[in-house]
Amino acid sequence: MVLLAFGLFSCHKSAGPAQTRRDVSITTADGVSMAATLYPAGPGAPGLVLVHALGSTRLAWDHFALKAQQAGYSVLAFDIRGHGQSTSQNRSQITYRNFTTEDWLGALNDIDAARTFLINSGADPTNTAIVGASIGANLALNYAVKTPGVPAIVMISPGLDYKGVTTRAKLVELGERPVLLMTSTGDSYSAASCSTLKQVAPGHCELREYAGTAHGTDLLDAAPAAIEQIFVWLKPIIGPQTKNEQKTGTGSLSSAV
Q1: What is the dotted CATH code of the domain comprising 3-248?
Q2: Mean confidence (pLDDT) of the chain
Q3: Which of 2, 10, 53, 184 could form an SS bridge with 134, CB 3.0 to 4.6 Å?
């Protein structure tokens, strides 16, 4: 059971429609008190759950999340257990610094709680994708394998093995669901991992490579075009649809890619 608690609204002006974000608290099925930030885009909007890298926090996603919200996605970014403000589990303090592989895989409960919260907040349950960075990408894939309702995942700087969270066999298990891989060519381990993952993927798998050595969400800062490319890739899979597309029945093709 996922327990929900709301924080305060914080409004931010932009060139487009008024954007809002609010901090929320979510309790996972195994008792982690998880801090998150919700960026709502209205009832029925496609959703994105954002999973950060080792040692990072949800704040690393803020620029991307606001851009995604402006593009029509409802977004939830959260602090993975042991990170940021998510350091309490059943009243005991936890830190990622002493995590085992089993502890890291426990973070799949975090993704599940985040996805449930986002859907309960109005995101389209059939069009809510997962976007992960570094070990967050590996966790996103592992979660999607266990959750058939996830229509697509975006993996930024994944590795074949981060802290025992592996991807090669899991990508095969994912089957035909679409995957976007993103890496910097100078990020040698991730670049090699992406090449391998691209080769073994049984379904629609696109690989985007960028110059430099930026890793994880830093890649989105180093290559600003990458953000828009994520939205372009997601649109025919989960939307959002324009009013004209809704009238004509074109646009989101989550089962056709």
Answers
A1: 3.40.50.1820
A2: 90
A3: 53
Contacts of residue 192, defined as CB under 8 A and 6 or more positions apart, other chains included, come to none
Q: How many CB atoms lie within 10 A of CB 70?
A: 16
16 has pLDDT over 90: no
What does the longest C-alpha to C-alpha distance in the chain come to? 53
Structure tokens at 187: 């990020």
Dig out the tokens for 164 from the structure: 């025992």
Residues 119, 70 contacting (CB under 8 angstroms): no
Residue 161: HSE in the Cβ half-sphere, 13 Å Cα cutoff = 3
Per-domain residue ranges of the chain: 3-248
Q: What is the DSSP string of 85-129?
A: TB-EETTEE--GGG--HHHHHHTHHHHHHHHHHHHHTT--TTSEE
Q: What angle do CA 110, 197, 173 make, to 5 degrees?
A: 60
Residue 90 predicted with pLDDT over 50:
yes
Query: Who contacts 233 (Cβ-Cβ below 8 Å, separation ≥6)?
Result: 154, 180, 206
